[in-house]
Amino acid sequence: MRNDPLLKLYYRLPLAGRTLAASARGLYLRSWRYGADTDQLVEDAINRESWSAKSWENWQGDQLALVLRRAALQVPHYREMWATRRRNGDTASFEELANWPILEKETLRQNPSCFVADDCNPRRMFREHTSGTSAKPLELWWSRSTVRQWYAIFEARSRRWYGVSRHDRWGIFGGQLVTQIEQRQPPFWVWNAGLNQLYLSTYHLAPDLIPAYLDALSSYRITYLVGYTSALYALALEALRLERNDIQLKVIITNAEPLFDYQRKTIAEAFRCSVHQTYGMAELVGGAGECSFGNLHCWPEVGIIEVDATNTSDGPNVGDFICTGLLNADMPLIRYRVGDRGSLSNESCACGRTLPIMRSLQGRIDDVLYTTDGRPIGRLDPVFKGNLHIREAQIIQETLKQIRVRFVRAPGYSPQSANSLVRELKKRLGPVEVVLEEVTKVPRTANGKFRAVVCNLPTGLLMQIGNGGNPSRPR
Ligand SMILES: [Zn+2]
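That is the input. Now the predicted structure with zinc ion docked in place:
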C-alpha cells in the first residue's frame, strides 16, 4: 500500500473492497510471519528467559561465529573490506568482533544490496523499508526464518507477557494511510482479517473525530492496542475528557516512539489497563520489551548490543548502541550504529527473568507536528519513502498553517522530487502551506544530533490543542 498507484486504487474502493484488500495483505504477511513452527518457536523463546548469563554467552558466541564467518566470506561489502585490509598487510582475524569497524547507517543506506549474502535472492526475501532520520529510504531484506523468529519473539515477549495473543482481536496505530487525509467522515480504519487486526489511521485523531474511534474500538470488540505513543496518547486524552468509561482494554503496547511517564499514566487511566513499551527496529539488530515490573528486558537472540560511552555528557555508561544482528545471517549488520542511545544494566529483576535490562533508552525523540484542526502527527518519516534524490531533510512547523522543509539535494534531484515531497506532506498534514528551503547542510543541535522533525509552535497553542505535555517543549 505504500506504492502510490496502488494506494489510489485502494482509495477508490468501497468499504468492503478496502477490507478485502487489507485482509489479502494481512494473509500475505501472516504467511511470512507465522507457520507450523510458530508455537514451538514461542515456547522456546519463553524457555530461554530463565537462562543463566553463561548460557546466553555461549549461545550468542556460537551465533556470532556463524554470522561473522558468513559476513566475511559471502557478503560482498564485508568480503571486499577484508580483502582490502589483507592487501594492506592487516592480519586481524574476522573471528573477533572487536576487529570489525563500526558500520554507519549512511554506508548501509548507500548500497544496501551489498549487505545481502551472495547465495540469497533478494526477490525471495521479505523486503522492508525505513527512512528514520535521513531522507533516503533504507532497504532491508529478511529471510523467511528471520521473519518467523522475530515474530515468535514478539509473540512471546510482548503479547504473551501481557496475557494476549495474535489470535485476539487487536488494533494498531501505525504509519499506513488507511484513508485520505481530507476525509472527515469515519471510518478512519480498516479491518484486516488476515491478522485479526483493526488498522487505525494515526492521521485523523482530531479531538472532534476521536469519539468515532472510541466507538470503533467498542464495536470491533478490540482487546488490546499496539502503536505509536503519540497516537495512543491523543486518543487517551480525549477518552478521559469525554469520560468514556465503556472501553476496557487488556494492555497497550507502544512502539516507534519513546513512552514518557505522563503519557503512560494518561493512557493507562483512559483504558484501565497497563501500558508497556517495546524497542525494535527494521534492521533487526536489537530488541527489548517491558515486563510488569517496568524493566525493559533485552532480547539477546536478536543481537549483541555494545554501548559506545566515549562521550559521557549524557551520564555514566550511556552511549550510542552499536549492534550486531544475530537473527538475519542473510543480511548481516555488524557493529551497526543504530541511532539510539541508552545504557545496559547488570541488575536483576523481580520478575525472575534473566534477560539483561536496558536503561535510559534515549533517541528517536522526534517532535510531533499538528494539522490545522489539532491532530497530532507523530511520525513523518514515511514521506521520504520512495527515492526522492534528497540527501537529508528536516521538517519544521512554525504555525499550524505552515511547514518549512530544509533539504539538501542529492545527484538526480529534480523539481519532481520536491513536488512529491510536498504532496506526501499534504497527504498527512492536510491543506498546509509547504515552504521548501534548499540548504547545503541541515543544522544540527548543540550536541550534534540531527532532528528530522522540529515543532516550533508556541507552548500556549500546544496547551490549547490539548498537548501541553509535549515532551519537547520547552527544552
Ligand atoms: Zn522483569
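The chain has a mean pLDDT of 87.
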